[in-house]
């Protein structure tokens, strides 16, 4: 099946890329099915959740562990039951990113990570109890620091 999105144009929906949120996402509870899309650049920390039910809705996700390896959200263990996971190895954790016109003000939501079970494509957004994790974490400096390290700069 093909869909025509605002941002990505026409896309073939591959069933193994469809992510299912049993309860939707906060504020978008009626949207349950999303297409999980990665960047062609394997080094990019960004990927996307494109709604299949409302083609105007797309969320930018950020691979938080690539830049904040000590990120450790504390979530009630019962919350993970919805994901039907047997092992943590199958869980992918992302933060929703907000990228304004001035990218220096880009933020990620550390308070409410999106967790996807790669084995069965079930997903949920969790609210973690860590006080130190804000809803708006400015990530631009981390990106610059990482880019500088990769290119051999200081």
Write the layout of secondary structure elements.
Layout: E1 2-5, E2 9-12, E3 18-21, E4 33-38, E5 46-51, E6 58-62, E7 91-98, E8 107-108, E9 114-117, E10 122-125, E11 137-138, H1 140-150
Parallel strand pairs: 3-10
Antiparallel strand pairs: 1-2, 3-4, 4-5, 5-6, 6-7, 7-8, 7-9, 8-11, 9-10
Written description of the protein model:
- The chain is mostly beta strands and 154 residues long.
- The protein has a single domain, classed as BH3618-like, CATH 2.30.290.10.
- Helices cover 7% and strands 32% of the residues.
- It has one helix spanning 140-150, and strands at residues 2-5, 9-12, 18-21, 33-38, 46-51, 58-62, 91-98, 107-108, 114-117, 122-125, 137-138.
- The strands form two sheets. The protein has a seven-stranded mixed beta barrel. A two-stranded antiparallel sheet has the order 1-2.
- The protein starts with a strand and ends with a helix.
- The model has no long low-confidence stretch (mean pLDDT 87).
Brief digest:
Helix content is 7%, strand content 32%. The protein is built from 1 helix and 11 strands.
Considering the chains and any ligands shown, give keywords for the structure.
1 helix, mainly beta, 154 residues, BH3618-like, single chain, two-stranded antiparallel sheet
């Amino acid at each position: 099946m093909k869909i025509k999105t605002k941002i990505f144009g026409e896309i073939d929906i591959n069933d193994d890329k469809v992510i299912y949120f049993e309860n939707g996402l906060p504020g978008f509870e009626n949207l349950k099915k999303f297409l999980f899309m990665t960047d062609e650049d394997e080094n990019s920390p960004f990927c996307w959740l494109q709604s299949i039910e409302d083609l105007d809705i797309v969320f930018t996700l950020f691979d938080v562990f690539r830049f904040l390896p000590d990120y450790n959200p504390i979530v009630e263990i019962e919350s993970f039951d919805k994901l039907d996971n047997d092992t943590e190895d199958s869980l992918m954790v992302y933060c929703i990113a907000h990228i304004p016109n001035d990218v220096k003000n880009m933020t990620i939501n550390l308070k409410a990570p999106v967790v996807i079970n790669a084995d069965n494509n079930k997903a949920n957004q969790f609210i973690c109890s860590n006080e130190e994790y804000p809803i708006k974490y400015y990530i631009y400096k981390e990106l610059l620091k990482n880019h500088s390290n990769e290119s051999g700069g200081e």
